[in-house]
Amino acid sequence: MAEIERARRLLGRVTAGIPESANPVTHVAEQPARRARCVDWPEWADADVVAALRKCGVDQPWAHQIEAASLAHAGRNVVISTGTASGKSLAYQLPVLSDLVEDEKACALYLSPTKALGADQLRSVSELEIAGVRAASYDGDTPMAERDWVRAHARWVFTNPDMLHRGILASHARWSRLFRKLKYVVVDECHGYRGVFGSHVALLLRRLQRVARYYGSSPVFVLASATTASPAEFASRLIGQECEAVTEDASPRGARTVALWEPPLLEDFSGENGAPVRRSAGAEAGRILAELVVEGARTLAFVRSRRGAELTALGARRILSEVDPTLAEQVAAYRAGFLPEERRKLERALLSGELLGVATTNALELGVDIAGLDAVVLAGYPGTLASFWQQAGRAGRSGDEALVVFVARDDPLDTYLVHHPAAILERPVETAVLDPANPYVLAPQLACAAAELPLTAQELDTFGGDAARGVLDALVADKVLRRRPSGWYWTSRDRPQYEVDIRGSGGDQIAVVEADTSRLLGTVDPGSACATVHPGAVYLHQGSSYVVDELDLEAGVALVHAEDPEWTTSARELADISVLAVQERVDYGGVTVCLGDVAVTSQVVGYLRRRPSGEILDQVALDLPAQRLETRAVWYTISDELLEGARMAAEPEAGRAVAGAEAQRPAAGAEARRPTAGRPAAEAEAQRPVAAGEAGRPVAGAEARRAVAAGEVRAGVAARLADGVGEARSGEAAAGRGGAAARSDGALPGSGETPAGSGARAVEANRRSAGIGGLAAEDGVPAVAAGTDPAETGERLTGTGERPIGTGARSAGNGGDPAETGAPPVRTGGGSGRTPGGAGLEPARIPGALHAAEHAAIGLLPLFATCDRWDIGGVSTALHADTGEATVFVHDGHPGGAGFADRGFAALVPWLAATREAIVSCECPAGCPSCVQSPKCGNGNDPLDKAGAVAVLDTVLGAVRQHGSRYGHVEVQAADTAATS
Ligand SMILES: Nc1ncnc2c1ncn2[C@@H]1O[C@H](COP(=O)(O)OP(=O)(O)OP(=O)(O)O)[C@@H](O)[C@H]1O
User: Fold this and answer.
1) Strand 538-541 relative to strand 544-552: parallel, antiparallel, unpaired?
2) d(C-alpha 698, C-alpha 755), whole Å
3) Is the CB of residue 61 below 6 angstroms from any atom belonging to ligand 1?
4) Ligand 1 centroid vs 62 CA: distance in angstroms?
5) Is 388 strand, coil or helix?
6) Domains annotated on the chain, with CATH
7) Which residue, judged by its Cα, is nearest atom 9 of ligand 1?
8) What is the pLDDT of residue 434?
9) Can the peptide bond before residue 943 be classed as cis, meaning omega within 30 degrees of 0?
10) What are the start and end residues of every segment in region (Disordered) (predicted)?
11) pLDDT, tens only, 69-104
12) Which residues are CB-contacts of 34 (< 8 A; sequence separation ≥ 6)?
């Protein structure tokens, strides 16, 4: 009981003085303590290894450790997927070290997503001092002289996927000693291999296996993962072989109290278009951190960006210095670029109580032996439940209950989570999404594979079968490979690995160079360069701030100078989308849901400068070229009949958008089925899939605007309301995901090819260009792009309601523009005469309703696909030329897609239901960042119709539910079954 009192006391302390009416805590949950389940050391384990582990403090192993270790020892691929600090390292150390001792020629590889984690793991193996093992690292930091030694002598090589790709597989003959006797491959933190990076790693591991086979070995894979859903399935997909899973965590855990926290609305600020805004999660976390430090609680606060971490620590110190200056000394920010020794020092200081509070980015999430803290504060959802529990899991000592506070940021996903505790506390951790069949990933990977060893027809099944065959044909047509009877051969003397960056797929990299010193700070992929390193952009690199002077896309360089201005920048982008091919299409009586390939043309048209207070300084127009991205999208269309229905719309209650039940209620009336006059009848056209290159492309942005102005298209229907990807990508978010920032393989923007073709050409292009992008990624340390996410840095939008910069691309208002009036127009009237399940929206509201529904859907997709909202974009339009109907698209931000849109299609119903819930449960009157406003909206969040969005979503969900039993969408697609940590 004393335990619970302690956590409750801590929570009481952080809420002290807040009136009950303004209590930010939306939910409190208690998680009980768990006892350890220990077992004996297995007989097969080497006695010296056991003795060494004992000496390092592991007296008796936990059951899950030995279960996994024994499977590996028996030659079975295994993934251990258990909670934070559950001793996963021992599960692979025991079999690997035992076998290395038993067979003095045997070798092993260890792969980690970051250099820092690899260094930590090497240190812990070296500390065991097992004779003859010769463990060594081989990464971007390994001096040239040492590399020869590692190749010649090391038996356990600690490296990362980037070095495996460029440094080991590319010159495998020099590593023949290792490959001949390669007994184990350890893949640590494998849940991080998702999206495009994960797809590359999956193919890289297949390349590794074929090279090992060539030298006569067939290594066993041991994978370690945070708790994830379906770990066996995911690991099998990652390595391309059967893999067993160990998931029952037998390590001890202290009890925890988890509090969900929604920061209060600010009274003296309003946001864009007059929307209410909340206190930033970072500022709130600083205050909570200070209160906990006063209580003597050892606390780690996770903040999403480096700048945010610094501001949070600063905020806490400022509060503490007023109470007791010595307490302020006990709070630190985790600085980027900590060396392993500094991290150890920090761990020790925090564990001993010398330091009481540390504000950190997720850099401290991996490879840190910090557990048993008194409290953890999470400022913002870290993107995945796996990360959430990884961070939360740092709290909790046996015998003493710890506190976890999750502070919501002002966005739809976080808001949804604090109001739906089950989505955090009871939901299984999501499966990591990867798609090794993406042609943009397959093409460069197959080129690398062929360059390593000629590819034979028998091997193609491991590379995706038919998908690989199609890509190989394109590579042959482009003369990248040559087809001979015995297989496919690489044609050049150059090695493709140097130009293929496995951390992304966006063409040749843009180098970010400090003009004064010519120092290369990092690289950004060309797809997001206009948004992140446009002239005037504030660019963060390793915690330091720079301002971009010049962006030369042709030369591939952004020149910057060191400067830490009083503002941050966020780009604004317009986009247009066309359907290239429809892979899946399901009709639900007036609502159609599709999955397919699209081309997104986007243009950064300007940027906003904001002070940390949220005040918008100004908007600066930019004249940058449009970019083209071919990718995957999920979209739904709604017929006019359903959208407009009859003349009765949802009536918003004060402070709430309520259209749900009302919009669902069927009402009779032939009136409702009347076709809308004046709207182009494109139904027949829209019923068939649109193939690549066909006529019927959408009206391009400028063209649409002209058409609207000229009255050629009905007012309001031609504007595309777009939310481009990555325009204000947070540097930390990019880095945290393993680095979308450093890319060099992939599509040629603007090639207009089908994915396979352009993927093939990408390789060709990459072969010609020197891959600057490799520099950042070789280290396993991705470059950091501008930290401009206002939600992360504590900035707030102060609304001016101004028009987007230099565009005019919005719905042509006809007096009914809801954003102009501040509130959606409300129709009243009898319940008769509307289309069953129809939205009851008048035409002028439709663009704003679709736009708002699209924003919220982008915000909520990360709940179902393991992506960040910056990985995806969207476009909504009241009339799309390719579909002939009102359409909302949500698309992947990577060439060829990363599986996110596919996941949205598969989880359509729960995704859109959660989207609706997020909007409805937001207390704002007409839309705010917590529900339908987007931080990256190219249209200045205008028009947005919150009540209309609910009506749209109800219409879609109603139609799917009514007609869906014949299809697959009614089922919640949750194969996710694993428990959280
Ligand atoms: N059986 C055991 N008994 C006691 N302590 C153990 C045992 N196994 C591991 N440990 C200790 O637990 C701590 C965490 O171990 P380890 O870093 O391997 O966990 P992990 O699951 O890899 O953590 P993370 O979640 O950070 O990846 C280490 O200090 C380790 O020495």
Assistant:
1) antiparallel
2) 20
3) yes
4) 10
5) helix
6) 2-32+256-410 (3.40.50.300), 47-246 (3.40.50.300), 439-499 (1.10.10), 570-981 (no CATH)
7) 87
8) 77
9) yes
10) 654-699, 727-764, 781-843
11) 999 999 999 999 998 888 999 999 999 999 999 999
12) 249, 251, 252, 253
